[in-house]
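To: structure subgroup
Subject: Chain for Friday's discussion

All,

I'm putting the inputs and outputs inline so they're searchable in the archive.
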Amino acid sequence: MNEAKTLVIRGNLVDIINRRTFGAEISIQNGRIEKVTPTGQDERSYLLPGFIDAHVHIESSMVTPTAFIHAAVRHGSIGAVADPHEIANVMGTEGVEYMLDNAKGIPFYTWFGVPSCVPATIMETSGAIIDADETARLLEREDLHFLAEMMNYPGVLNKDPEVMRKIEAAKNAGKPIDGHYPLATGPKLKAYIESGISTDHETIYLEKGREKCEFGMHVLIREGSAAKNFDALHPL
């Protein structure tokens, strides 16, 4: 058998854990870092961990997953946690399956979830409906990894039977539940989290972010084209 070849690359290594940057030569074998050797000089390029987008609606970019990935990876992203809510709101399960098929086989980590609110509210006219039974069926799939943002927070707080069945389906499948609760606070926030919802990306103010963290919720900090919350929330 041929011995595995060692790939050697040089650059300024960004050490996230120890918060330092230094010139280094990195030896990689079988897809794993084998050795890091400081060079003692400033290198021309940078080596750092890839970014993962913790919450995105790929179809909102008006391109396919393949085209989105081609653009994202050029800016250092290696993965995305994606909620195909918008296409599901138009096409239902068929739209979710299209997103999965289009992203298949591409060297990019794409974790799709099951949209929890199709339609977004009972007052909305949509092209499709994904009810609790269909939600449970989709959550059984290995290529769908979580129940996507539960934006129907009134339904959670009022224990709407259909909403609660979707949440229970995610729990039964052993999959996390993403949240969406703007300006949440106090007992209502606590009740929302205690239903089993573990994350929220709708945080603008530091004190509200701290409250969510104190109740055990993971806060996703947005810094994108629409919402820019990093400066306010990074102390979290």
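Points worth raising on Friday:
The chain has a mean pLDDT of 94.
Residues 24 and 38 are 4 Å apart (CA to CA).

D.
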